[in-house]
Write a sequence for this structure.
């Protein structure tokens, strides 16, 4: 049993892989306190007044970008956003040059989403600001895994010993990687399931069970997490047809009957209804998909708060 | 180091404060006690019990964490953020008389933060301040309405309040 952490050891949040268990607990506990702020009449606290946060989104995002922006505003930070369209990136500016330009404006924190794995790590080498990875390629999406863990803990009152099935496009999923890192650190048991063509090399070495049968994966699960089929990242023939995918790997009410009686269903969004998940499940009593969105706000407020104290 | 209040003295002070609260506030029904984390919370709960014994009225209690409102939060160049605890106020504070409760009143900066936090929850009719110990050295124009004991200190000293609920025993010690 380690003693409780009172601070994060790094001033960046680049991934879950290098977080310690007590740091994960600290973020989740802080998020619990942050969630209360959202229930108030005035949903804003003066904590990050005078701090500047830059949101760099080099890749499409709705919920993560809005969630970070709202989290920053609720903490009273000054925020500026940049998306790829309408920026100098379309004129051919390199990541390094964009980073140097932003560095000259002396932000305190930079939130970054990028299609290339490792881009935030490169940014961390150039900038004095703390970097928060909001998803890099197929590598990691740490705040998603943290909000998933927060939602599981909220519903199940624990993480240790939970049976979690993660089903879908494993190959392209940074959500999978961050979740597997987190869940294995906190002592949950994880089974992953996906078509053999969408299974990353070395997945079995990450401490999880691997299966091609969704029925076997869902059997007795406390949590069923569906991953999106990421058409946009598929450069080649991975799947014969979406209909066949749904038949073999889609989550239906019938399949949910194999799960634990009070099981919950999660999805990081955006959903492909009728591809990886049946609408009856997505909108059914198992679904905590909208809780995930609400909890994402609290988790991101917690991360911003904890990292803002660590100056370079 | 001297123990300036023992368990009996803490208990007597809180009983006296409860009587003063009843004396000053004709409508007990409008009151609510909000303790500042950490040690203001058990003191608020004890005052609620004492008020119930005196009047038969159950005064609602809440817990306030002022961390997000601190004025020194971002001033430390390097260092960890204070650990955030949750605020629990399950009733509307609008039009109520709020008794804000803390263990030690010192510079007044904690109370300034607490006032800002409370205003974000609503518009109380009035806010009164309860402190178990007032040790002086105010840096802001703030004073307590109810004080358990005034204890003259130097700024080099520290005052430790210990309560059964959190520390296993009731006492106030001046250290240094």
């Amino acid at each position: 049993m380690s003693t409780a952490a009172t601070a994060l050891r790094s001033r960046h949040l680049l991934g879950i892989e290098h977080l310690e268990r007590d740091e994960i607990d600290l973020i989740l506990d802080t998020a619990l306190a942050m969630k209360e702020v959202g229930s108030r009449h005035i949903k804003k606290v003066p904590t990050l007044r005078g701090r500047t946060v830059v949101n760099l989104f080099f890749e499409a995002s709705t919920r993560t970008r809005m969630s970070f922006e709202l989290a920053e505003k609720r903490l009273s930070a000054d925020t500026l956003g940049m998306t790829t369209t309408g920026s100098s990136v379309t004129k051919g500016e390199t990541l390094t040059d964009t980073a140097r330009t932003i560095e000259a404006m002396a932000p305190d924190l930079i939130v970054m989403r990028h299609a290339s794995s490792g881009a935030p790590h490169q940014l961390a080498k150039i900038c004095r600001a703390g970097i928060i990875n909001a998803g890099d390629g197929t590598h990691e999406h740490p705040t998603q895994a943290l909000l998933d863990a927060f939602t599981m803990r909220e519903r199940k009152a624990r993480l240790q010993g939970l049976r979690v099935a993660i089903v879908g496009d494993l190959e392209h999923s940074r959500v999978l990687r961050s979740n597997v890192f987190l869940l294995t650190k906190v002592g949950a048991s994880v089974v992953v399931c996906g078509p053999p063509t969408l299974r990353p090399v070395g997945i079995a070495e990450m401490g999880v069970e691997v299966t091609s049968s969704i029925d076997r994966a869902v059997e007795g699960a406390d949590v069923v997490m569906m991953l999106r089929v990421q058409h946009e990242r598929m450069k080649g023939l991975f799947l014969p047809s979406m209909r066949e995918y749904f038949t073999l790997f889609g989550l239906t009410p019938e399949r949910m009957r194999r799960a634990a009686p009070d099981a919950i269903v999660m999805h990081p969004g955006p959903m492909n209804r009728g591809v990886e998940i049946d609408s009856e499940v997505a909108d059914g009593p198992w679904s905590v998909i909208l809780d995930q969105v609400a909890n994402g706000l609290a988790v991101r407020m917690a991360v911003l708060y904890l990292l803002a104290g660590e100056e370079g | 180091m001297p123990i300036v209040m023992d368990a009996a003295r803490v208990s007597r002070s809180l009983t006296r404060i409860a009587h003063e609260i009843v004396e000053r506030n004709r409508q007990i029904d409008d009151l609510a006690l909000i303790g500042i984390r950490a040690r203001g919370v058990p003191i608020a709960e004890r005052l609620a019990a004492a008020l119930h014994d005196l009047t038969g009225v159950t005064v609602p209690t809440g817990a306030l964490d002022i961390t997000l409102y601190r004025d020194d939060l971002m001033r430390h160049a390097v260092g960890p953020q204070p650990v955030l605890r949750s605020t629990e106020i399950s009733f509307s504070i609008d039009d109520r008389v709020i008794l804000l409760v803390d263990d030690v009143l010192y510079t007044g900066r904690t109370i300034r933060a607490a006032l800002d936090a409370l205003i974000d929850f609503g518009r109380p009719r009035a806010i009164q301040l309860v402190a178990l110990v007032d040790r002086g050295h105010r840096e802001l124009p703030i004073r307590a309405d109810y004080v358990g004991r005034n204890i003259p200190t130097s700024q080099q000293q520290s005052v430790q309040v210990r309560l059964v609920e959190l520390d296993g025993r009731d006492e106030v010690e001046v250290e240094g």
